[in-house]
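Example S7 (structure tokens).
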């Protein structure tokens, strides 16, 4: 997005500490005592036609929301226990990349494929940290670098926006995981009715990077903020995403 993006609809700044039980706190919490799970995501990245970076981030965020709202993830659904176990512990997401036969093998595993304008992301039910299926364990994590070939238009202020930090450099794969974290924090803050409305609309959202001044306002606004635990790439406690949903602009 351009550096002159305005902060329309952003609430007045206030203190925004992490909740005591936040899964994104750097300090140890009771969540660390639970068995640890990870939500796997696989991005399809073909050599000839890689996806655009922003579309990949947006598609990954929607994939997380689709998994959270899927009937198999709720109640007595077949993925519900794994989803509960994952959300009771630290919230980890790992994005790997696949192409050709690798992608076809990934698609054969239980999961959901979400398609954007240029991106395809498959999300799988959570697995133990050391329980990766062999079809996914072989896939590469690092080196996922993507670009936007054209300028990204301003965000639609009437729809949810995941604002990425202008101060933290991340690979595309890391940024996709962070966008997913932001979407999940917004989801947790919504009422059941607001979740249903978002789901029924197809989870519209955009991912944008604000200028430094707007970022400072967003972090202090009281909206949900992702503070990364620092397992990979970036320093622990780095603010990476602000989840700006219209229903949360109090």
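Recovered sequence:
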């Amino acid at each position: 997005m351009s550096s002159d993006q305005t902060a329309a609809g952003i609430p007045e700044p206030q203190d925004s500490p992490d909740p005591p039980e936040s899964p994104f706190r750097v300090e140890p919490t009771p969540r660390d005592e639970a068995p640890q799970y990870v939500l796997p995501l696989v991005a399809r990245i073909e050599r000839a036609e890689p996806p655009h970076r922003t579309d990949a981030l947006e598609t990954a965020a929607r994939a997380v929301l689709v998994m959270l709202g899927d009937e198999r993830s709720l109640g007595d659904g077949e993925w519900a226990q794994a989803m509960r176990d994952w959300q009771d512990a630290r919230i980890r997401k790992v994005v790997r990349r696949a192409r050709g036969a690798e992608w076809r093998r990934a698609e054969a595993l239980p999961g959901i494929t979400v398609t954007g304008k240029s991106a395809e992301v498959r999300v799988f039910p959570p697995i133990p940290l050391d329980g990766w299926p062999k079809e996914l364990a072989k896939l590469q994590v690092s080196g996922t670098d993507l670009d936007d070939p054209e300028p990204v238009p301003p965000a639609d202020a009437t729809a949810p926006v995941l604002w990425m930090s202008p101060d933290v450099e991340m690979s595309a794969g890391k940024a996709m995981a962070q966008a997913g974290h932001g979407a999940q924090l917004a989801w947790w803050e919504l009422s059941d009715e607001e979740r249903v409305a978002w789901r029924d609309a197809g989870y519209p959202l955009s991912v944008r990077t604000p200028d430094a001044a707007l970022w400072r306002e967003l972090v202090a606004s009281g909206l949900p903020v992702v503070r990364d635990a620092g397992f990979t790439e970036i320093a622990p406690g780095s603010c990476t995403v602000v989840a700006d949903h219209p229903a949360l602009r109090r």
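Notes on this example. The longest helix spans residues 172-189.
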